[in-house]
Fold this protein.
Amino acid sequence: MSMESIFQKELLFFEPYYGNATPLGYVESPEVSKLISSFEDDKPLCSFFIKNVFKDLPKKTTDNKNDEEINEDYRNLIDFIRTSQILPLCIPHKPSEHTYKFFKRLTEIADSLFQEKIDRRFANICEKAEKIGIIRPELYIDSVKHNGKTFHRIQLHDEKDELFVFDTCLFTFYKISESLFELWIKPENLGMFLEVWIYHLLKSFFEINTDLTIYHRVNIYPKRKQMESIQELANLKQSFIITELDIALFKNTKPICSVECKHNADFSDVIKFYGILKLLNIPEGIFVCVNPLTDEKYRKFENIHIFSNVTENDAFLSKMKGISAEIYLRN
Amino acid sequence: MESEQKFVLKLIYELDGVEGRTKLQKLIFLGEMELGLKEVFSFDKHHYGPYSWHLTEVIEDLVASGYLKEEIIMKGEHISYIYTPTKKVDKLQLEEIKIPSSTISTLRKVKALPLGIILSYVYGKYLPERVAVL
């Protein structure tokens, strides 16, 4: 295993445009890699993570009054998980009646939510997640973090809006791994799961092709003349970076393909992607979206291979691997 | 505590932590070369660019003695380190180390840049013969 990176290579796309990839720790973590591997033979699980943005899990479009009640419960559950990073599966040791009821209710809500979304019991989900390593039981959690602060006692409002306080040290919980939190729960990283899924898919598929390197999140910038002073360096604006590629494939030193991933795309996104490929002289692109952008699940537009409604497309994985292999051989 | 240790702790404290040994090396190098930081460490043209073995020893001593926290994170196939001062650091001890606020301000901005950009600058200016483009 390499130690920290030495001089980071600049990726030349097409003069004067260069790229720089900074791998994200949680994207490359073993548990995320294992989770994504588990998607291969668990389509409902795959669909659940890719289609559902965590914060939107409580949403339900219906006029039924009872459904509004469920929304509120789901929202409380989601808020609890997001702020505490723990799953309310276990009942605390020696709980007070109030504490017991609070967690029992949360567990019931979680059960209801997962039955609705993925037709599975909450306990089953946790069992699988523990095997993958994205959650782990903690025999003794002595603190939880929330909004940058560390708490040794948790204060929450229960469904009756009564302030509820308990000591964290009395519990055994399932703790959500930092990787899963960053990837799926953290609001700033909304929608990243799709591109991480595709990234790992391609990495795994091309594992034996040593002449191919796959980069995640490549910042593109025009090469500037050498800066003369540290002040010039310090004042480098963010606009220096003109765009970002979700995924870039390099065969030896040549870019051969870029992959763009979108949850909700319209055709202007495809046109924009076309422009980026042209600017950077990348021969081919793959555009992956969750929404049904086109009538066909696969369509070619110019040099872009468009895959729509990917989570509902049983043939998506095999088709994408086939197209990627063709691109690799063609270039 | 030795004066070099206090200097490194003070700098990391003022910068609210630093991610990466390489970045920390380059920040101190640039601080000494261009921002008037006292030349506490001397840098060689190492295989990885301007590098101070003494600085590495100081960092390791600070981690071993509990003054500096070293968190290891995986970044692809590489390991990265995040350095932050621990609660054991007595801020009063660091007050004798003076670093101009303008220097800290510039280094903060540079610290926020991607490592690749910083290395491009360092190599381009100080080791142009080593610049590789792929």
Remarks:
- The longest helix of chain B spans residues 21-34.
